[in-house]
UniProtKB/TrEMBL annotation:
<feature type="binding site">
    <location>
        <begin position="119"/>
        <end position="125"/>
    </location>
    <ligand>
        <name>ATP</name>
    </ligand>
</feature>
<keyword id="KW-0573">Peptidoglycan synthesis</keyword>
<dbReference type="InterPro" id="IPR013221">
    <property type="entry name" value="Mur_ligase_cen"/>
</dbReference>
<protein>
    <recommendedName>
        <fullName>UDP-N-acetylmuramoylalanine--D-glutamate ligase</fullName>
        <ecNumber>6.3.2.9</ecNumber>
    </recommendedName>
</protein>
<dbReference type="InterPro" id="IPR005762">
    <property type="entry name" value="MurD"/>
</dbReference>
<keyword id="KW-0133">Cell shape</keyword>
<keyword id="KW-0547">Nucleotide-binding</keyword>
<keyword id="KW-0963">Cytoplasm</keyword>
<feature type="domain" description="Mur ligase central">
    <location>
        <begin position="117"/>
        <end position="306"/>
    </location>
</feature>
<dbReference type="Pfam" id="PF08245">
    <property type="entry name" value="Mur_ligase_M"/>
</dbReference>
<dbReference type="InterPro" id="IPR036615">
    <property type="entry name" value="Mur_ligase_C_dom_sf"/>
</dbReference>
<keyword id="KW-0132">Cell division</keyword>
<dbReference type="InterPro" id="IPR036565">
    <property type="entry name" value="Mur-like_cat_sf"/>
</dbReference>
<comment type="similarity">
    <text>Belongs to the MurCDEF family.</text>
</comment>
<keyword id="KW-0961">Cell wall biogenesis/degradation</keyword>
<feature type="domain" description="Mur ligase C-terminal">
    <location>
        <begin position="328"/>
        <end position="449"/>
    </location>
</feature>
<comment type="function">
    <text>Cell wall formation. Catalyzes the addition of glutamate to the nucleotide precursor UDP-N-acetylmuramoyl-L-alanine (UMA).</text>
</comment>
Length: 472
C-alpha cells in the first residue's frame, strides 16, 4: 500500500471496531481520508462507535451493507480476525481493491526500528522478554501488536530513539505487503488456525511474510530445531541468526549440553557463538526466571533478538533471571494440600499442551477442551499414555479428548458440563481434578483448544480457573 497520507480525499473502509480498527480510523481521518468504519455487531456492542462519530467519521454497525465496497473505495483495512470469505472482502477482491491489516499501516508511519515476533506458540512470552531485555539496556522499547496495544497507536508515538517490539499473529501478517521489520523472529509453526487459513500452506505462507521483504541489512531469528523454519531460511534474504535447544550451532544461540543429551538439567548453559567462533556464556538454564523447555526456546529467541538490537549481555542476563512469566502461560496459581495448580489457558492448540505436559516431572491431572476446530486430538495420545494421570474434559471437544484418553488406557477420566453456567463448569472441573490428584501432583489447565465456545477469551478462562482454585 501507499503511505497513509496519500489517501487524502480518498475513500478508505475500516472493517472491525476493535482497538486496531479505532486507531487506524483515527489516523486516516486525521490525514484527510474519507473514512467509513463498519462492524457487524450491533451499535450497543460497539462502545468505540460514539468516539469515532464525534470526530466526524462514518460508522455503520449491525451488518455489512451491500453498497459498502464499491469502485470508489481505494483501500480496505480489516481486523485480522475477519475471514477473507465475508462478502465485503470478496467484493473488494473482485474489484481489485487493496486489502491490508493494521500492521501494514503502522509500518508506513513508524519511525522506530521494529523487532517482530511470530509463531504458533510462545509469542507473548518472547515479546515480553525482549522488551524487558531492552529496558534493562536503556533502549526505550515500546511493546505492542497482538500483545495488547494497537500497533498503529504505538507506532505514531515512537521516535527514532525507541525500538518497537511487536507480537504478530498469522492473521495480521496475511494482510501485509510492504511490511519489513529490521529483526524478525519466527519461533515455530504447528498445525493450528486451519479454520481461518484453510490449509497449512496458507498458514506457513502467512507466517513467512514476516521475512518476505527483509534484505541483507536485516536479521531473521529462526528456530533451527523446526523443519519449517529451516525451509524458510533457504529463501531468506536477511542474515539468519539461528537458535537451538537440540544441537550446538556453528553460529547462533544454543544450549550446551543440548536437550538431546541425557544430562542433569542443572548442567545446561545458554551460549552465544559469534561469527568468529568465539563462545559467550549467557546464563545457566536453571537460573531462568520461568520453567519448561519451551520457555528455554523462547529465551534463546529473545537473546538472539536483543543481541542483534545491541543490548549488552549483562542486561540480557538480568532480564532472563528476573522475568517470571506472563499471566495464563504456565502461571503458578497455588499449592493446596501438596497439589500444585498451574494456569496455562493460553495453550490453544495441542502442540502447546504437549510441550507443557512434557515440562513436568510430576504426575499431571489435566483440564482440557474447548472450541472444536475439527481436530481429532490424536497427537495427544503419546503424552496421555506416558505423562498424564487423569483428565477432566470440558467444552465442545470434551468427547474427542476423552476418547483419546480412553485409547491411552487412562482410568481417571471425567467430563464436566453444567448447562450454561460457565463458572460452575470451571469450578466443578477444578474440584474433579483435585479429587484425582495426590500430594506432589500437578493440576494443569492446558486446554489444547481455543476458548470461544464458552468464554470470550483465554484470559477469562484462565481467570475463572484461578478463582476456582482459590475457592477450593
Amino acid at each position: 500500500m501507499n503511505h497513509p497520507r496519500s489517501y487524502r480525499n480518498e475513500q478508505v473502509v475500516i472493517l472491525g471496531l476493535a482497538r486496531s480498527g479505532v486507531a487506524v480510523a483515527k489516523l486516516f481521518h486525521e490525514l484527510g481520508a474519507i473514512v467509513t468504519v463498519n462492524d457487524k455487531k450491533e451499535r450497543n456492542l460497539c462502545p468505540e462507535a460514539d468516539e469515532l462519530t464525534a470526530l466526524g467519521i462514518s460508522v455503520i454497525c449491525g451488518s455489512h451493507p451491500s453498497g459498502l465496497i464499491h469502485e470508489g473505495v481505494k483501500l480496505v483495512v480489516k481486523n485480522p480476525g475477519i475471514p477473507y470469505t465475508i462478502e465485503p472482502i470478496v467484493r473488494a477482491l473482485e474489484l481489485g481493491i487493496e486489502i491490508v491489516t493494521e500492521v501494514e499501516v503502522a509500518y508506513h508511519v513508524c519511525q522506530a526500528p521494529m523487532i517482530c515476533i511470530t509463531g504458533s506458540n510462545g509469542k507473548t512470552t518472547t515479546t515480553t522478554w525482549i522488551g524487558l531485555m531492552l529496558e534493562e539496556a536503556g533502549m526505550k522499547p515500546i511493546v505492542a501488536g497482538n500483545i495488547g496495544r494497537a500497533l498503529t497507536e504505538a507506532a505514531l508515538e515512537a521516535g527514532e530513539d525507541n525500538t518497537m517490539v511487536v507480537e504478530l499473529s498469522s492473521f495480521q501478517l496475511k494482510g501485509t505487503c510492504d511490511f519489513k521489520p529490521q529483526i524478525a523472529c519466527l519461533l515455530n509453526v504447528y498445525e493450528t488456525h486451519l479454520d481461518y487459513h484453510g490449509t497449512m500452506d496458507d498458514y506457513i505462507a502467512s507466517k513467512a511474510k514476516l521475512l518476505a521483504n527483509q534484505g541483507p541489512e536485516d536479521t531473521a531469528v529462526l528456530n533451527w530445531d523446526k523443519p519449517v523454519c529451516r525451509q524458510i531460511a533457504e529463501t531468506a534474504k536477511a542474515q539468519v541468526l539461528p537458535f537451538s535447544i537440540m544441537e550446538e550451532l556453528d553460529y547462533g544461540v544454543f544450549v550446551r549440553p543440548s536437550f538431546a543429551a541425557d544430562v542433569p538439567s542443572e548442567q545446561r548453559q545458554i551460549v552465544y557463538r559469534d561469527k568468529s567462533g568465539e563462545d559467550h556464556l549467557i546464563v545457566p538454564v536453571k537460573e531462568l526466571g520461568i520453567p519448561a523447555s519451551f520457555n528455554v526456546e523462547n529465551a534463546l529467541a529473545a537473546v538472539c533478538a536483543a543481541l542483534t538490537a545491541g543490548a549488552p549481555i549483562e542486561a540480557i542476563v538480568r532480564a532472563l533471571k528476573q522475568f517470571h512469566g506472563v499471566e495464563h502461560r504456565l502461571e503458578h496459581v497455588a499449592t493446596k494440600d501438596g497439589v500444585i495448580f498451574y494456569n496455562n489457558s493460553k495453550a490453544t492448540n495441542a502442540a502447546a499442551t504437549i510441550k507443557t505436559i512434557e515440562s513436568f516431572e510430576q504426575n499431571v491431572v489435566l483440564i482440557a477442551g474447548g472450541l472444536d476446530r475439527g481436530s481429532d486430538y490424536m497427537e495427544l495420545l503419546p503424552v496421555f499414555k506416558d505423562r498424564v494421570k487423569g483428565l477432566v474434559a470440558i467444552g465442545q471437544t470434551k468427547e474427542k479428548i476423552t476418547n483419546v484418553a480412553k485409547l491411552a488406557g487412562m482410568s481417571l477420566v471425567k467430563t464436566v458440563d453444567t448447562a450454561n453456567n460457565v463458572q460452575d463448569t470451571v469450578s466443578e472441573a477444578v474440584r474433579e481434578a483435585f479429587r484425582m490428584a495426590e500430594a506432589g501432583d500437578v493440576v494443569l489447565l492446558s486446554p489444547a483448544c481455543a476458548s470461544w465456545d464458552m468464554f470470550p477469551s483465554y484470559e477469562e478462562r484462565g481467570s475463572m480457573f484461578r478463582q476456582s482454585v482459590h475457592n477450593l
